[in-house]
Amino acid sequence: MSSVGIALTVLYFALSAIFSGSETGVYSVSHVRLDAEARQGRSTARILRFLLRGNATLLITLLVGNNLMIELLTHQSEALVPAGMPPWAHEMILTLVLTPLVFFLAELAPKDLFRRRPYRMLGFASPILLLAYIVFLPVVLPMRALAALLERLLGLPASDVSRLFRRREMLDILEEGTRTGVIPPEARALARNVLVLRETPLERVMVPWDRVRRIDLEGQGPDGVREAVGAADFTRLPVIGEQGGRKRVLGYIHQLDVLGSNQEVGEALRPIVHLSPETPVDRALHRLRDEGQRLALVGTPEEPVGLVTLSDLVGEIARESRSRETGELSELGRNSVPSLG
């Protein structure tokens, strides 16, 4: 291979590494930080801010550029194969030689480097990315239109993806602010939990129905019901009874309504909000606030699966760390059960 061929091979490897690493780098930078640096006059930040405004278009550009470089690299490397080899051996030798080199030098290593140093590496690569963005635009735009059409046909709204990226970006901003001392750790933990709980369904934080203490109008009788209400350590108790020939949750009672007057339990019933187990915690909080309620049934009145209280949901947000471990969730359930009566 001539010196020109070697130089072209190195160039194709380098460009493939830049395109591949940038795929990871664009997900590791904060748009807010780029905006701040762009306002300070940094040219690389301005370029990156421009490129990232069309996130999908940039990603298609990177994929087109990376695949083109690999094709050119394969074509350039054909000179390494000895002449006279059969076609199958020709392809096998190229595959055996190029696959490990491309994987480590043009995929694995640059992706890790761009993940660890996204701002520095993308700043270095930004002029190349801008040039590729302009050169490949006639090819990229039809592909972007096709991708948008497929998203619509398959029912994949771009808003869901954009919300995910905005949430992850905000989490990165919180982490960065804590490292620099701008945001106190307690504020970061609280804000992080609020963002995370937008994806946390009620079924993960509710008290299972079989562990909820409730009042059974038919099973306990009037005297038994009043005695059970009086013995309760807390104020709100769900009530079940027969309606339409089927046992269901009728509502809930407040302890003071029963013990502070001569009202029968049935007359003291209050309506109870019921929510789907898939309802996110933040939406459940909004619903309770709008309804002026302090507890909600998870499931349906005919088939309840659990119960949550306002204090449970607020307490979940105030926790210093996310409760992902099974042991933490079990502890949350144990701490919540007494508040249900």
Walk me through the structure.
The protein has 341 residues and is an alpha/beta fold. The protein has 3 domains: 3-154, no CATH class; 163-198; 202-316, CBS-domain (Roll). It has helices at residues 3-25, 31-39, 43-53, 55-77, 87-116, 118-135, 137-153, 158-180, 185-196, 217-231, 255-259, 281-291, 310-318, 326-336, and strands at residues 207-208, 215-216, 236-243, 246-254, 273-275, 295-299, 304-309. The strands form 2 sheets. Strands 1-7-6-5 form a 4-stranded mixed β-sheet.
List keywords for this structure.
3-stranded mixed β-sheet; 341 residues; alpha/beta; 3 domains; CBS-domain; 14 helices; 10% strand
Strand content: 5-15%
Strand line-up across the major sheet: 1-7-6-5
Look at the structure and give the mean pLDDT. 80
Helix/strand-derived category reads alpha/beta
Number of domains: 3
**Proportion of helical residues:** 55-70%
- How big is the Rg? 30 Å
Describe the SSE topology.
Blueprint: H1 3-25, H2 31-39, H3 43-53, H4 55-77, H5 87-116, H6 118-135, H7 137-153, H8 158-180, H9 185-196, E1 207-208, E2 215-216, H10 217-231, E3 236-243, E4 246-254, H11 255-259, E5 273-275, H12 281-291, E6 295-299, E7 304-309, H13 310-318, H14 326-336
Parallel strand pairs: 2-3, 5-6
Antiparallel strand pairs: 1-7, 3-4, 6-7
